Amino acid sequence: MSEGYSGRRGSVGRRERRERREKREDQLHGNYHNKSFNLILNCQRILVNSVSQPALLYENVVVSDGSPLLRDLLFSPDHQYLYALTDKQVTRVPVESCEQYTSCGACLGSGDPHCGWCVLHNVCSRKDRCERAEEPQRFTTRLVLQTQNVPSLSAGVNCSFDDYVETEGRIYGGRIFCLSPSTKEVAPITQDRGDRRVIKLYLKSKETGKKFASVDFVFYNCSVHQSAPPLPRSVGNLTSSTLIPHFNKRATGSRDLASSSPPLLPSRFTSPHPFLSDGLSPRHRSSLTHTVECPQILPSTQIYIPAGVMRPITLLAQNLPQPQSGQRNYECIFHIQGSSHSVPALRFNSTSIQCQKTTYDYEGSDISDLPVDLSVVWNGNFVIDNPFNIQAHLYKCRALRDSCGMCLKADPRFECGWCVQDKKCSLRQECTGGGNSHLPLQLAEGGGWMHATSGNSRCTHPKITKDCDIKATPPQSDATVLYPHPPPPTPAFLLFPETGPRQGGTRVTILGENLGLLFRDIQMGVRLGKVPCVPIEEEYLSAERIVCLLNDATGYRVQEAQVEVCVRDCVNDYRALSPRPFTFVTPYFTRIQPSQGPISGGTRVTIEGSNLNAGSSVSVSIGPQTCHFKKRNAREIVCVTPAGLAPGSASVLVDIDDAELRNPEVKFNYTEDPTVLRIEPDWSIASGGTLLTVSGTNLATIREPKIRAKYGQAESFHNCTVYNNSVMVCLAPSVADSELGFSETGTGPDEIGFYMDNVNALVVVNETFSYYPDPVFEPLSSSGILELKPTSPLILKGRNLIPAAPGNSRLNYTVLIGETPCVLTLSESQLLCEWPNLTGQHKVTIRAGGFEYSPGTLHIYSDSLLTLPAIIGIGGGGGLLLLVIIAVLIAYKRKSRDADRTLKRLQLQMDNLESRVALECKEAFAELQTDIHELTQELDGTGIPFLDYRIYAMRVLFPGIEDHPVLKEMEVRVQANVEKALTLFGQLLTKKHFLLTFIRTLEAQRSFSMRDRGNVASLIMTALQGEMEYATGVLKQLLSDLIDRNLESKNHPKLLLRRTESVAEKMLTNWFTFLLYKFLKECAGEPLFMLYCAIKQQMEKGPIDAITGEARYSLSEDKLIRQQIDYKTLTLHCVNPENENASEVTVKCLNCDTITQVKEKLLDAVYKGSPYSQRPKASDMDLEWRQGRMARIILQDEDVTTKIDNDWKRLNTLAHYQVTDSSVIALVPKQNSAYNISNSSTFTKSLSRYESMLRTASSPDSLRSRTPMITPDLESGTKLWHLVKNHDHSDQREGDRGSKMVSEIYLTRLLATKGTLQKFVDDLFETIFSTAHRGSALPLAIKYMFDFLDEQADKHSITDYDVRHTWKSNCLPLRFWVNVIKNPQFVFDIHKNSITDACLSVVAQTFMDSCSTSEHKLGKDSPSNKLLYAKDIPNYKNWVERYYSDISRMPAISDQDMSAYLAEQSRLHLSQFNSMSALHEIYSYIIKYKDEILSALQKDEQSRRQRLRGKLEQVIDTMALAS
Question: What's the rounded Cα separation, in Å, for the pair 539 and 537?
Answer without folding.
Answer: 5
